[in-house]
C-alpha cells in the first residue's frame, strides 16, 4: 500500500517552530537533487528550477544529483545537462541503480572527477531514438535530419566528457552498450566507484 512521500520536520530560517515538509524538499535544501524517473519535460524543468534557485542562493556550495533513470526525452535531458554546465557550483553526479540513455548522458555531465557510480549501478549508452513521424515525407526527412544533429551533439559531448575519440563513441552508440560501475569508470562516464560500507 503506497504511503506517499514521507514528511520530515524542518525549521525555516528565522522561525521558532518547525514545519513538516516532504523529504525531497528537505533534501533540496541540503543541495541534494534526485532524478529517479524517466526524463521528461516536467522533471527536467523541476531540476533546472531547483539548480537555478540554489545557484542564486549560494554559488560556493556544490550540488549533488542522484541519478536512477531509464532515460527519456532527448531535448529534456540536454536541457538538464546544459543547466548543470551553466550553474557556478560544481554538480556532482551519483549513479545508483540505472543510468541509461539520457540518464547516462546526465551522469556524464557532472563535474569531471566528481561523477560517482555506486558498486552495483548499471550504465547504458546508445544513440537517441526518434519517434516515427506519421506525416508527409518531407516532414519525415526533416525529422531524420534533426535526429542526426542531436546524435552528433550527444556524441561530441560524450567524447568530450569521457576523453574517448569521437569515432569510438560514435561506433559504440550504434548499439546498446551496458556497463557495470567499474566499466563505466573505465569508459569515462563515471570517475569513481563508491566503496561498499563493510563495517557493519
From TrEMBL:
It is an enzyme of class 3 (hydrolase). It is found in: Plastid, Chloroplast stroma. It comes from the Eukaryota. GO terms for cellular component: chloroplast stroma; endopeptidase Clp complex. This is ATP-dependent Clp protease proteolytic subunit. Its main location: plastid. The keyword Protease applies. Its EC number is 3.4.21.92. InterPro entries: ClpP (IPR001907), ClpP/crotonase-like_dom_sf (IPR029045), ClpP/TepA (IPR023562), ClpP_His_AS (IPR033135), ClpP_Ser_AS (IPR018215). Gene3D superfamilies: 2-enoyl-CoA Hydratase, Chain A, domain 1. The keyword Protease applies.
Amino acid at each position: 500500500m503506497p504511503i506517499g512521500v514521507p514528511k520530515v520536520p524542518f525549521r525555516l530560517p528565522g522561525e521558532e517552530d518547525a514545519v513538516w515538509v516532504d523529504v525531497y524538499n528537505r533534501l533540496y535544501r541540503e543541495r541534494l537533487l534526485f532524478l529517479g524517473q524517466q526524463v521528461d519535460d516536467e522533471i527536467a524543468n523541476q531540476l533546472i528550477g531547483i539548480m537555478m534557485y540554489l545557484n542564486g542562493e549560494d554559488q560556493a556550495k556544490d550540488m549533488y544529483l542522484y541519478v536512477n533513470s531509464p532515460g527519456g526525452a532527448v531535448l529534456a535531458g540536454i536541457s538538464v545537462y546544459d543547466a548543470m554546465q551553466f550553474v557556478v557550483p560544481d554538480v556532482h553526479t551519483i549513479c545508483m541503480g540505472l543510468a541509461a540513455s539520457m540518464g547516462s548522458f546526465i551522469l556524464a555531465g557532472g563535474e569531471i572527477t566528481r561523477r560517482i557510480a555506486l558498486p552495483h549501478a548499471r550504465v547504458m549508452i546508445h544513440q537517441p531514438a526518434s519517434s516515427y513521424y506519421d506525416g508527409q515525407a518531407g516532414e519525415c526527412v526533416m525529422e531524420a535530419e534533426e535526429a542526426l544533429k542531436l546524435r552528433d551533439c550527444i556524441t561530441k559531448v560524450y567524447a568530450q566528457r569521457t576523453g574517448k575519440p569521437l569515432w569510438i563513441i560514435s561506433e559504440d552508440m550504434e548499439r546498446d552498450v551496458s556497463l557495470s560501475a567499474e566499466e563505466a569508470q573505465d569508459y569515462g562516464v563515471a570517475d569513481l566507484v563508491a566503496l561498499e560500507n563493510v563495517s557493519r
